[in-house]
Amino acid sequence: MAARLKPGQGPLDYGSRLWLRLLFAAIFFVLYAPIITLVAFSFNTDKRGVVWRGFTLDNYARAWNNASLIEALTNSLVIAVIATVFATVLGALTALLMWRFRFPLKGAYEGFMALPIVIPEICMGVALLLFFVNSGMMEFFVHMPWPLNLGNIIFAHVTFCFPFVAVVVRSRLVGFNRQLEEASKDLGASEWQTFWSIIVPFMKPGLIAGALLAFTLSLDDFVITFFTSGPETVTFPVKVYSLVRRGVSPEINAASTVLIVITVVATVLAMKLQAPPRADKG
Fold first, then answer.
1. Cβ distance 206 to 172 under 8 Å?
2. Helix 200-219 vs helix 67-100: crossing angle, to nearest 10
3. Which of 39, 74, 124, 142 is the most buried (most CB within 10 A)?
């Protein structure tokens, strides 16, 4: 039986109901309580970081002076940035290919392209490890100077990130009005001018969202990085895993908090870039 609405209450005014507010509060608590706890304990004076002893900023100074932790964090950021650039370009081109062109076995191609999304991550890591070892790429990148020695991890991250970008960008292109493209050509624009002036601006929200998704996936990946990293290359998730086995220290909480701040700032910037321009008030 449908719930009765009060006088003056519309079908979308269920937010005024107490049970729905409690449900939203419970969902937000489950999602954000662990993150808030981690940030709070990054200021804890307790060396083990388990019991709250007091407030301090020394944990951030110790994390900054921890050369191996900073090196791992720098590696993760460099890998994430480079992998995001390549994954965004490759994903956008793949989305254009699937949206614009018809070719034999297109359905099969779309299915195979989605494999990195649906297969277990550990299987992806083992497959990439076998490929790198048998192709000689693992040995080739190991002896390269920094940051070229991160090439195998970057290659692996691009491999599993670009399908996510392609899915996001293609979903954006589905709503494209082809009449805009035809009008551009009728006005004398070339194929490239139409692409850069009409299609790319329409793709911009999807490109930004896909790039942000690729950046986040690359930054926090552990399984694939664990299999494809060389003995001299350590990323932040792998470093944290090796340290957590001896206990969670406030230094780890501090470094993780910095990483969370970087991710939040990147998300805010991406949202601002996606926002439509405001009309000037005359």
1. yes
2. 140
3. 124
3-state secondary structure of 44: strand
CB within 8 A of 197, min separation 6: which ones?
184, 189
Q: Report mean pLDDT in 10-residue bins for the chain, 282 residues.
A: 53 63 85 84 74 77 80 86 91 84 76 79 83 76 72 85 86 77 75 79 84 85 81 78 72 81 78 60 46
Residue 278 CA to residue 196 CA, distance in Å, equals: 22
For CATH 1.10.3720.10, list the domain ranges present in the chain. Answer: 68-281
Give me Rg for the CA atoms of the chain.
Answer: 24
What's this model's pTM, rounded to 2 decimal places? 0.76
In angstroms, the CA 146 to CA 154 distance is 13
If DSSP states are collapsed to H, E and C, what string results for 182-201?
Answer: HHHHHCCCCHHHHHHHHHHH
**Strand partners for 44:** 55
Q: Measure the CA–CA gap between 171 and 175, rounded to whole angstroms.
A: 8
Report which DSSP code applies to 138. Answer: H
In this structure, what token pair is assigned to residue 195? 């692409």
**145 Ramachandran zone, left/alpha/beta (phi>0; psi -120 to 50):** beta
Q: Are 152 and 137 in contact (CB under 8 A)?
A: yes
